[in-house]
Amino acid sequence: MKAYYCDHFVLPLPATHSFPMAKYRRLRERVIEEGIVAPTDLVEPQAVSVEHLTRVHDPDYVESVVAGTLGVEHQRRIGFPWSPAMVERSRRSVGGTISAALTALSEGMAVNLAGGTHHAFRERGEGYCVFNDIAVAARVLQAEAPQLTRIAVVDCDVHQGNGTAAIFRDDASVFTFSIHGEKNFPFRKEASDLDVTLPDGTGDDEYLRCLADALDVVARQQPDFVFYLAGADPFEGDRLGRLALSIEGLRVRDRMVFDRFAAAPIATCMGGGYCPDVDTIVTIHANTIRELSMTARLATGV
Question: Rounded to two decimals, what is the model's pTM?
Fold first, then answer.
């Protein structure tokens, strides 16, 4: 199973910044150490082209990011100061999801060890998201694989995928599903095709029951390709999560998604995770990749 990584393209953030940049390098190291991904299956993606970005994003916004003319308010909403390294990192992260999607189309599944930048809208970024990687990858798939008639986005980050919902509003070719905290960021929600909102403190049993019901609805759409955003931030110890899932509950969540869509190509990306203990975030993400790898092995009989 191919895994795409870009952790060596690092955002130059202050030491006090809340974004856990170190998790990406540690995740790559963990999946190798534990034999979840073979070293030969780790691939550095190309940076996404401007042409591909403008399949989704406003050309003026893309130009302002690439050229370094992004205004102060745009930078504030994104949460990162502009820098050439920020541009490169953002483009590589999108490139990773595109590569994972194209690989999944031919091999059944693949993973981006980053990605999940679902708060980016057509004309702006926000919430640590510069470009919307899943939206761009979906448009690239549709251009290169016109046989795909129904793509589904299964977003299990604790924060609603508001940018993704807005980008695909009234687009019957992409079904968007988000299960998230009702009172959490973003405080102005968009309308996905299916939203499941959960109160603060929701634990494993209620979350998994709601997820099972929602996956039934998504499955009835008969998607021929699935993007899975496997956020680590529903974890009970997450600083920004406000839900109460255990590490085991999150592993079961992943298994439910992979089992339900085992017959469709699936591209997985990581999404958020803000536990003060970065190793806990890495464990949750590594479990996701392990579950995906087990699905791949079952599918191939290896």
Answer: 0.97
